[in-house]
Every structure is written in C-alpha cells, then in structure tokens.
Amino acid sequence: MSQFIAATPTPALRADALAGVRTRRTFAVCLDLVLVSLLVFFLWTASIVLTLGLALLFLPPLWPIVAFFYNGLTVSGARMATPGMRAMDLEMRLHDSGQRVPFVNAAVHALLFYVSWFFPPIFLVSLVDSEKRCLHDILAGVVVVRRL
Known about the structure:
α1 (21-50) crosses α3 and α3 crosses α5. The two termini are 27 Å apart. Helices cover 52% and strands 7% of the residues. The protein has one domain (2-146). The protein has helices at residues 21-50, 55-58, 62-75, 83-87, 103-116, 125-128, 135-140; strands spanning 90-94, 142-146. The protein contains seven helices and two strands, in the order ααααβαααβ.
C-alpha cells in the first residue's frame, strides 16, 4: 500500500537528482524503442530462418514480449537502468526506500508505460508532480533520477 503514497519524499534524492529528468527520459525512451525494435527484428529474422518460414504462421507478437523483459531485466539489474537510461545518465529506484527496483516492479512499470501510450494526456501528470514522476511511475512505486 505504501507504493501508492505520492506525498512521501524519496530519502535518497540529492538536490540535483531531478534536474533535466523529463528531457533525458524522452531521449532515453527513443533510444530504448530503437534498441527493442532491433532486438525484435533479429529475433524475428532468426526464427523465420530457423523454421524455414513456418514461424510466420504461429509467431506471437514479439515486440511487447521483448519490451517487457528488456525493461524488467535491465532496470532490475545491477545498473538500475535500461541502456537508453544509462546513456542519458538516469537510473530507476524504489520511491519509498531508494533501493534497486525488483523485476516485478520494473516489468509492471514497463507494462503501464506502454499502456499509457493509449492515453497520452496521462503523461502530463509529470508536469504537476513535484518529483517529475509520471502516473506509471507512481503506480509502480518507482522514481527516475539522475545517476548517483
């Protein structure tokens, strides 16, 4: 339940931890979308070649599956960020403790992020939140900050 409390400040935040986060996140997402698309392209091509084209008949949509695990595994890893976030000097932490994000929270965050694209005005929440958190950040209990 504590993951839904937005008024509690993150204990591990420095004074400059949120400087330029929105802009950096935008560029990080663009880079991550390209990387996920490249991964999907290579997996799709390999599966078609290995199955002699039969994969076209039963291949599930790979993009959401790869994006789910890409975000979940990279954010919950030792570097606490996707490659795009690392390139933009960002990391994701748990909001209430400032600790590393578990796989479940990172994967749910990714799922909520991609669902948010169906309702773009939801992204405006970051303009009124004092910690520049989007709605999917608040629901997943995470905060994106500049790398410590």
